[in-house]
Amino acid sequence: MPEEGASGAGWRSVAAQPRALPPLPSADKRWRIVSTALRRLGQRPHGLIEGMHAVQEAFGYLEPAALRYLADALGVPLAKVFGVATFYHHFQLRPPGAHTCVVCLGTACHLRGGPAILAALGTAHGVKPGGTTPGGELSVAVARCIGTCSLAPAVVLDGAIVGGMSPEAVLERVSGWFAGPGEDLPR
Length: 187
Ligand code: FES
Prior knowledge:
- This protein is α+β, with helices and mostly antiparallel strands and 187 residues long.
- The chain is 41% helix and 11% strand.
- The protein contains 8 helices and 5 strands.
- It has helices spanning 9-15, 30-40, 48-59, 64-74, 78-87, 107-111, 114-125, 167-175; strands at 99-104, 131-132, 138-143, 155-157, 160-162.
- It has a 5-stranded mixed sheet, with helices on one face.
- Helix 2 packs antiparallel against helix 3 and helix 7 packs across helix 8.
- The longest helix is centred in the first third of the chain and has 12 residues, at 48-59.
- The chain is elongated, with a radius of gyration of 22 Å.
- It starts with 8 loop residues before the first helix and ends in a 12-residue tail after the last helix.
- The structure holds FE2/S2 (inorganic) cluster.
- The site of FE2/S2 (inorganic) cluster has 12 residues, from helix 6.
């Protein structure tokens, strides 16, 4: 810890120096985007949440190496970084699936069958909310109203809102994302 002089100027002059960022976890260029974001945040512990957002936006999830990097870069204990990452459902600790299905469970969609859609996905593909199918084809998430209540029950398939869904209709829509052996996954 820097020593403060009688005037306190010593502390201020040292504190104003930016921390050196740790080495990037890999040569992946997306880390440069993340490190730029961390510099903008001042490389301080209070930037942890926003730093996590920056990593997840760049990579889609927070891998262990990313959490270690954030801990080193922001001066936060690694245990705390893991704690924050697991506390907020928004943060993904595993790679997302190739496709996403967000099931709305807001009031209107809940009343008109949203839970049945979610259950059907779980039964047919063995995936729970916040999870990804074992083969990585599909990630399922839930939302609390996506703003299209007149279309309830609504889902968001790869970013596109689709309303008036039934469990069968959703299963039909996602079926093409599960390719047979040797086939490429359609996107
Ligand atoms: S409750 Fe589902 S869109 Fe509003």
